[in-house]
């Protein structure tokens, strides 16, 4: 059996998907991964005879792009789903203020009611509609391009990871009659408080609700996330929680590195780098405490660049240190090696993903 795996990164730090790919190959199936060069083109797995990969690279096109997107929808009879998710796709003059206002109001009408209250009441990123429009447009354009790349690969099963690869899975199922497994690691519509404009969150929620109906199996990282999605999206496929568990076998109690006695106390943070994590506030507070330093282990991002600029501007280079990201299996050991106090600053009630992560 040949199985196609779709993922929006290079697998370098994605231990979950790496485990899935290895398990499929070890079971004797042929597995082909279609990955994205994020953060770079260094693929995270060593290839073998029955475990191969290709990279998909997103190439933004000049506006208007709705014609290309809707042409793809027509090939697979998905026009209604596309327009129900993002009504402005039927209009080429989407940056014209009257048209933008009309279709934004139409989108807002689609998310009225209790079903969408968790999404419409989220703490979203403040942004004008003109600027916010680029988010769903890019999402649909990238999804279509990714799908075109996936459609060049035959397979009996397609495993899609997260919503940005879901369209590719649906199109593949329609073309090849393959079985579709959808594994969502996050609820993209509310991935973190203060991240993504509300327009984009609304589009993501409606689109995922409609497209998930095509899945033959739905997986996620937590039971709570599946319960929420089942209740709000109403899909009928089997829902299977597959938890992210470390395999390090580390004895935390006896592994703490005591070579930091008498030195600065290291506050340690490992995770996503966005404005909701409290990192800017923590860096500012460091100036008041001579005995503390901060150790950050984050993937590259625009926000991380802003943080580094803030550190430079406030001359805190000797108070904040950066260490290389590692895979999930190395997290416990490296956290004990590089830090003394763990740091997490978030309000779980402000974000569905945070709530799911702790259940």
Brief rundown of the structure:
By secondary structure, the chain is of the alpha/beta class.
Explained architecture:
The structure is a single chain. About 2% of the residues have low confidence. α3 packs antiparallel against α9 and α7 runs parallel beside α8. The longest helix has 17 residues. The radius of gyration is 22 Å and the shape is globular. Helix content is 40%, strand content 14%. The strands form 2 sheets. A 7-stranded parallel beta sheet has the order 3-2-1-4-5-6-7, sandwiched between helices. A 4-stranded parallel beta sheet has the order 10-9-8-11, with no helix packed on it. The protein is of the alpha/beta class. It has 15 helices and 11 strands. The two termini are 35 Å apart.
Span between termini: 35 Å
By secondary-structure content and strand pairing, the structural class works out as: alpha/beta
Please indicate the percent range of residues in DSSP E strands (runs of 2 or more): 5-15%
Mean pLDDT: 89
Could you give a short account of the major beta sheet? Answer: 7 strands, parallel
Order of helices and strands: EHEEHHHHHHEHEHEHEHEHEHEHEH
Q: Helix count, per DSSP?
A: 15
What descriptors fit this protein?
11 strands; alpha/beta; 4-stranded parallel beta sheet; 40% helix; 359 residues; 7-stranded parallel beta sheet; 14% strand
Please specify the SSE layout and strand pairing.
Layout: E1 2-6, H1 15-26, E2 30-35, E3 51-55, H2 66-75, H3 79-85, H4 97-110, H5 117-120, H6 129-132, H7 134-150, E4 157-161, H8 166-176, E5 179-184, H9 198-211, E6 217-220, H10 223-233, E7 239-241, H11 252-255, E8 265-270, H12 279-286, E9 292-297, H13 302-313, E10 320-322, H14 331-338, E11 341-342, H15 352-357
Parallel strand pairs: 1-2, 1-4, 2-3, 4-5, 5-6, 6-7, 8-9, 8-11, 9-10
Helix pairs in contact: 2-7, 3-9, 4-9, 7-8
């Amino acid at each position: 059996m040949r199985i196609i795996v779709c993922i929006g990164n290079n697998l370098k730090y994605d231990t979950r998907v790496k485990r899935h790919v290895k398990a499929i190959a070890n079971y004797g199936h042929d597995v082909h991964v279609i990955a994205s060069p994020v953060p770079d083109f260094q693929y995270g797995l060593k290839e073998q005879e029955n475990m191969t990969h290709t990279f998909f690279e997103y190439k933004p096109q000049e506006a208007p792009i709705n014609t290309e997107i809707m042409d793809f929808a027509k090939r697979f009879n998905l026009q209604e789903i596309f327009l129900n998710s993002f009504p402005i796709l039927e209009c080429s003059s989407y940056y014209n203020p009257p048209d933008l206002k009309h279709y934004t109001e139409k989108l807002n009408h689609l998310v009225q009611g209790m079903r969408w209250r968790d999404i419409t009441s989220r703490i979203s990123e403040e942004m004008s509609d003109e600027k916010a429009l680029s988010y769903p447009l890019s999402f649909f354009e990238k999804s279509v391009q990714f799908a075109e790349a996936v459609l060049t690969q035959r397979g009996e099963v397609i495993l899609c990871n997260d919503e940005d690869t879901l369209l590719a899975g649906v199109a593949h199922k329609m073309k090849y009659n393959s079985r579709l497994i959808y594994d969502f690691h996050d609820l993209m519509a509310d991935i973190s408080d203060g991240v993504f404009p509300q327009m984009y969150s609304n589009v993501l929620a409606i689109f995922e609700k409609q497209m998930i109906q095509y899945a033959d199996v739905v997986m996620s990282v937590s039971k709570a996330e599946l319960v929420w999605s089942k209740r709000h999206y109403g899909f009928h496929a089997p829902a299977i929680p597959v938890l992210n568990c470390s395999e390090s076998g580390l004895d935390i109690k006896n592994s703490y590195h005591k070579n930091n006695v008498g030195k600065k106390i290291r506050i340690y943070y490992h995770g996503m780098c966005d404005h909701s994590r409290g990192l800017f506030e923590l860096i500012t507070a460091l100036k008041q405490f001579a005995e503390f330093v901060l150790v950050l282990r984050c993937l590259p991002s625009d926000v991380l660049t802003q943080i580094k600029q803030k550190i430079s501007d406030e001359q805190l280079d000797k108070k904040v240190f950066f260490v290389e990201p590692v895979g999930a299996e190395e997290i416990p050991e490296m956290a004990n090696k590089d830090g003394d106090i763990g740091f997490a600053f978030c309000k779980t009630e402000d974000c569905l993903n945070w709530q799911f992560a702790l259940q």
